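ok new one. same drill as before - structure tokens go in, u give me an amino acid for every spot. 225 of them this time. try not to just spam alanines like last time pls lmao
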């Protein structure tokens, strides 16, 4: 187990009720995550976070349904996809219908975001998703999550196929990870952050990563995020 994972599990232990370490984690040799996926918080041992569905709007946050957007003119022509979950290609490009597509990026302070429609520009000090997100496969046939509320539509309690974490390909090797912190746009909720060199939020909870699950809905699920 890597140093980072040990740290993550150690910090989760404090609030852990049940606690399972996945056996024989193997790094995907080419770092290529197949198929289209949904993602959830991956935090074994945390009843609160493990399995929470991650949805994309302008930023990444937890939610029952995707925060999609479709222009009224497109809607009137019946052109709005009716997916209910945020879907991603690989690790982790958003699946949307908008011409030109959209990208995932990370602000200098770590806030994980999706580019606005018709734009592939990001702030000069931000990072493209591909600069830091990487996928690790988990063993198949894992036991279902214990203590995950299967009747709560905000959770997907299926064991993930793997998990995505963040670490800049070039940079400080001691920094990296994915955190749940206060939402900068709504102090009543949380948002997802990558631990960038300038990340300095406090009061956050570290996840082991973002669990990946095969996506089965309409592709793409939304016109735009
Ligand atoms: C990695 O990519 C190379 C070149 O595309 C390919 O030959 C190889 O089979 C891949 N390995 C795995 C484990 O997917
Ligand atoms: C979504 O759209 C597809 C294609 O138009 C349709 O077959 C399906 O019934 C719709 N699903 C829902 C839940 O509205
Ligand atoms: C946060 O919650 C409080 C109390 O429920 C509410 O009054 C306030 O409007 C909420 N703020 C936002 C930004 O949603
Ligand atoms: C955190 O970083 C921001 C810039 O991203 C800076 O303005 C702020 O003062 C820093 N806060 C602390 C507590 O270091
Ligand atoms: C996800 O999809 C892949 C490829 O189609 C398949 O091999 C795998 O069994 C699926 N995993 C689950 C948990 O359904």
């Amino acid at each position: 187990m890597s140093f980072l994972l040990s740290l993550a599990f150690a910090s989760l232990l404090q609030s852990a009720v049940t606690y399972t370490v996945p056996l024989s984690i193997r790094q995907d040799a080419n770092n290529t995550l197949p198929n289209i996926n949904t993602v959830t918080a991956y935090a074994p041992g945390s009843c609160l976070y493990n399995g929470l569905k991650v949805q994309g709007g302008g930023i990444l946050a937890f939610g029952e349904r995707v925060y999609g957007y479709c222009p009224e003119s497109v809607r009137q022509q019946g052109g709005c996809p009716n997916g209910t979950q945020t879907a991603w290609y690989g690790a982790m490009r958003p699946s949307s219908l908008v011409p030109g597509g959209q990208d995932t990026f990370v602000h200098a302070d770590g806030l994980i975001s999706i580019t606005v429609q018709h734009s592939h520009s990001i702030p000069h000090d931000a990072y493209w998703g591909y600069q830091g997100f990487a996928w690790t496969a988990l063993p198949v046939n894992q036991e279902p999550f214990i203590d995950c509320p299967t009747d709560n539509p905000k959770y997907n309690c299926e064991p993930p196929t793997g998990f995505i974490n963040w670490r800049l390909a070039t940079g400080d090797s001691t920094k990296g990870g994915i955190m749940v912190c206060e939402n900068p746009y709504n102090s009543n909720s949380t948002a997802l952050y990558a631990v960038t060199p300038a990340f300095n939020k406090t009061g956050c909870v570290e996840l082991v990563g973002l669990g990946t699950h095969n996506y089965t809905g309409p592709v793409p699920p939304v016109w735009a995020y």
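Residues 1-30 have pLDDT under 50 and may be disordered. and btw The chain has two helices and 15 strands.
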